[in-house]
Specification:
Cytidine Deaminase, domain 2; five-stranded mixed β-sheet
Length: 271
Amino acid sequence: MQVVRHKTARLRENGLHAVECDLAVEELLEIFIDDAPYAVTMRLPGNDINLAAGFCFSEGIISSLDDLLSISHCETAPDNGKVLVYIDPRRARNAAARIKRPEFLSKSSCGLCGKSRAEEIYTEIKPVERFRPMSLGAVLSLKDHLESRQSVFRKTGCTHSALIFDTRGGVLSFAEDIGRHNAFDKAIGELLLERKLADAYIALVSSRLSFEMVQKAGVLGAEIIAGFSAPTSMAVKMAEYLHITLIGFLRENSLSIYTHPGRITNDRDNS
């Protein structure tokens, strides 16, 4: 269940009226790695396996699907509120410092909650080596692709979404969640589990473009990340370093390009 009905009062021109509204469900999810608690996040139920897989990938715990021995819900946990991740022992040794650090709380609003040291914020990400162009018209058409898929947002108005495309403009994955980081991790996790990470070209998110969102795009290997809102200063610095084209304030007929604008050709043709 992702949406519940709730009785409320709504102000209209002639006063308060009793109405019912839809609320997005927010529930806790625990992620255990090799039988040890690693993270707790508040999420929109659904696609939990994708979320846990994408989280482990963007956190640097794993670098490919082959690093996973298994990933599944814990059958005894109420409401499927726990995902069990088991990592290949060879990879586990390489990632021991991250796996064995104290459990932290990753709230839905912040991707850095609980990080105990500054160096945990930074991961070793190689700058993008490819530089494939995309037309301005194609970029401007992306917003409709995302909004047409936001079923929970249309009912509740309180979710974020992430959409990942290939170079032909084909949709590779889509996810919706109460947390912007969770939505992106769900979309990334779907590609990881389907072995389609190499096809990722552009990521579109409904939220602001923070440092962590650009970092996830860098881990994914995306050449472009676009969002409906503004970027932060650290997001711009990270995108510049990673050779990622960073686009903010994406609308039907306007946008702002903050880094590496050469990828976007001045062509309004939607191809």
